Amino acid sequence: NSRVEGLNGLSIQANGTVNIYDDAVIYNENTYAMTSSCGQINIYGGTVQSTITDAVTLTYSNTCGVGKYNMTDGTVIGKNNGVVEGYQGNILTMSGGHIIGEENNGINSKGTTTITGGVVEGNVYGLYVNGGTTTIGDDEGSISIAEPVIKGELYGLYITNPQQMTVNFFDGILKGQTFGHYNDVSNIPDRSNIIYGYETIEGVNYNT
Questions:
Q1: pTM value?
Q2: Is the distance from CB of 156 to CB of 181 less than 8 angstroms?
Q3: Could you tell me which of 152, 98, 90, 92 has the C-alpha nearest to residue 127?
Q4: Which residue, of 72, 116, 171, 203, has the fewest CB within 10 Å?
Q5: Pairing state of beta strands 107-109 and 125-129?
Q6: Which segments of 52-101 are extended strands (E)?
Q7: Close Cβ partners of 173 (under 8 Å, ≥ 6 residues apart)
């Protein structure tokens, strides 16, 4: 087991790579748990948590590129947001694990975001899309309505301006107390429709 705590969080720069495995814990009470301006964050397990703000932030550097994030397992918990993409060049891929934004959103998406598995949830929106290209699921094989799960207390998926970004919804389920999603998605699989329903979670009704 390993645990990393510090005043300034774990910063990845100069095209570095940080891999988080198994029972590792990255924890911060003062700022972001992790930030990447031009490095690669790979989360294969463990826990990444900030108890004061966003757990993970991705930005860019004029000298070495953009921050990238890949997640296959583990848990990311931010007091504000779970993961924030601050630049349209950022790349986020998620095939498993759990991302939580305790007071705001699970993921703030602005770059190229691909979520094929796992759970993303926020206290406001599960997935907040404000630019770039976002893909939920993949357009191959049979359609899954079980995963990924995008859940928000207001909307599961919130698209700020569908005319200025691309949002593909191929697999999974969107859950929100107000509605599953806000604004229209760009693409769904051929010969398919979005099915609407509701689900009761711990006594609270969610539209799906």
A1: 0.94
A2: yes
A3: 152
A4: 203
A5: parallel
A6: 56-58, 60-61, 65-66, 68-78, 83-85, 91-94, 98-101
A7: 145, 146, 147, 148, 149, 150, 156, 180, 208
The DSSP annotation for 11-27 comes to EE-TT-EEEE-TT-EEE
Q: What gap in Å lies between CA 4 and CA 157, rounded to an integer?
A: 32
| Share of residues in the chain with pLDDT > 70 (%) | 94
Whether 97 contacts 124, CB under 8 Å: no
Buried-exposed string 135-162: b where 16+ CB fall within 10 A, e elsewhere:
bbbbeeeeeeeebbbbbbbbbbbbbeee
Distance separating alpha carbons of residues 50 and 77, to the nearest angstrom: 7
DSSP three-state, residue 163: helix
d(CA 125, CA 48) in angstroms, rounded, equals: 20
Please state, in angstroms and rounded to a whole number, the distance separating the CA atoms of residues 5 and 26. Answer: 6
